[in-house]
Design brief:
Blueprint (H helix, E strand, L loop, with lengths): L2 E4 L5 E4 L6 H8 L9 E3 L1 H14 L19 E5 L7 H23 L1 H10 L2 H34 L2 E2 L10 E2 L1 H29 L13 H5 L4 H20 L6 H25 L6 H8 L4 H59 L12 H12 L1
Parallel strand pairs: 1-4
Antiparallel strand pairs: 1-2, 3-4, 5-6
Pfam families: BioY
Keywords: Membrane, Transmembrane, Transmembrane helix
GO cellular component, one term: plasma membrane
């Protein structure tokens, strides 16, 4: 029976595997690790097939030369349950595993050295591939995300608008945009690590990528922006936690609530530092100089984050569609080659197992003649 597997992201492929093996095939073709309980068979397809089978299995009349026409059954639609909805990090990791598989396939085709290496490894090659796919590729993918997040924060910090000292000593930057974007996509582990790497490189390694190209420990611990810089870590942590725990039912309103709550954490640290930290302005002045001037800008940045979340999913989905198309084409090509080889072996076996039969001029079978001659000799 043919199955049409459809993921919550709209990715699909046809399969003729057994139901018990569909989880492994989904992991191989889509990169998602899905258990059996996350698969749902569409009931309408089953009822239609049963109804059609009842109509098509009628016996024709005796002596009729025409055989009943049986329609080809459509594939049964199997849905990956929407209660299991991949987060952006899950989809990204699945993409990186698919990219690794595609690179391995391309290298096997182009380089004879890789083929010889695979032959030498023998049975160890599947084990090595599993280790690389499940350990090395996720580690490298996570490190790339952490480095990308730190660089994104450095770029966003350079988008800076200095305010008059009478309004606020803290400039308006794009850093809160970077924090919310990272937290909503990469989760509660990668996003804080990216912020910590950004702070470490700016304070310890003296990379001038804080706002207005500043750097050093004084900026991190003894400036008006210190509370905001430290609050970025906790804001990314909370935003990433919301993203990981609520990825199954997020809507625009849920995203908006998640971003507002996460952004409020940054301003709790920032206003608290202005009120009781180095400037020691008091609570009312801290809120006046640390929150009020930034409200219009934060509204714009949260709106941009909502747009960038959708855009990031779109870009990731387009890349995944191209990569998965190549992988599925490769699987189909291998299945066609194996089926053709099996057919050729079957034909060869039939030809070799069928005895040669020749007819003499009298119309007798030579096998009968040889048998009769053997009997007469006895």
């Amino acid at each position: 029976m043919q199955y049409l597997v459809v993921s919550p992201l709209g990715e699909s492929f046809e399969s003729s595997s057994r139901i018990d093996d569909l989880g492994k095939e989904i992991e191989r073709k889509l990169g998602y690790k899905v258990s059996q309980q996350h698969l749902t068979i569409e009931s309408e397809n089953i009822s239609q097939i049963r109804r059609r089978r009842g109509q098509d299995h009628s016996i024709g009349r005796i002596g009729s030369t025409s055989t009943p026409m049986v329609e080809e059954e459509p594939p049964v639609k199997i849905l990956v349950n929407p209660s299991w909805y991949p987060s952006f990090l899950d989809a990204y990791m699945a993409l990186m595993r698919s990219v690794f598989d595609l690179i391995l396939i391309k290298s096997e085709r182009r380089f004879d050295l890789v083929k010889k290496w695979h032959l030498k490894l023998g049975t160890c090659h599947p084990l090595l591939k599993t280790i690389v796919s499940n350990a090395v590729v996720p580690f490298i993918s996570n490190m790339l995300l952490v480095i990308f997040g730190a660089c994104l924060m450095g770029v966003c910090a350079q988008i800076s608008i200095s305010l008059p000292s009478s309004i606020s000593a803290v400039p308006i930057t794009g850093q809160t945009f970077g924090v919310l974007w990272l937290g909503s996509l990469t989760g509660f582990v990668i996003a804080p690590l990216s912020i910590l790497l950004y702070l470490f490189c700016g304070s310890v390694l003296d990379i001038p990528w804080f706002s207005n190209q500043t750097h050093g420990n004084l900026v991190l611990f003894q400036s008006s922006s210190s509370g905001f810089l430290i609050g970025f870590v906790f804001s990314a942590l909370i935003c990433g936690w919301f993203c990981s725990k609520m990825a199954s039912d997020r809507t625009i309103m849920m995203n908006l609530l998640m971003l507002c709550l996460s952004n409020a954490v940054t301003f709790v640290f920032g206003c608290g530092w202005l009120a009781f930290g180095v400037p020691n302005l008091g609570l009312s002045k801290g809120i006046e100089k640390g929150l009020v001037p930034f409200l219009p800008g934060e509204t714009i940045k949260i709106s941009l984050v909502l747009v960038m979340i959708r855009l990031s999913w779109f870009v990731l989905f387009q890349i995944r569609k191209v990569v998965l198309k190549h992988l599925i084409d490769h699987d189909n090509a291998n299945s066609n080659i194996s089926s053709s080889v099996n057919v050729e072996e079957g034909q060869l076996q039939i030809q070799t197992s069928t005895p040669m039969t020749t007819i003499n001029e009298d119309g007798d079978d030579n096998r009968c003649l040889s048998t009769c001659s053997n009997i007469s000799n006895q």
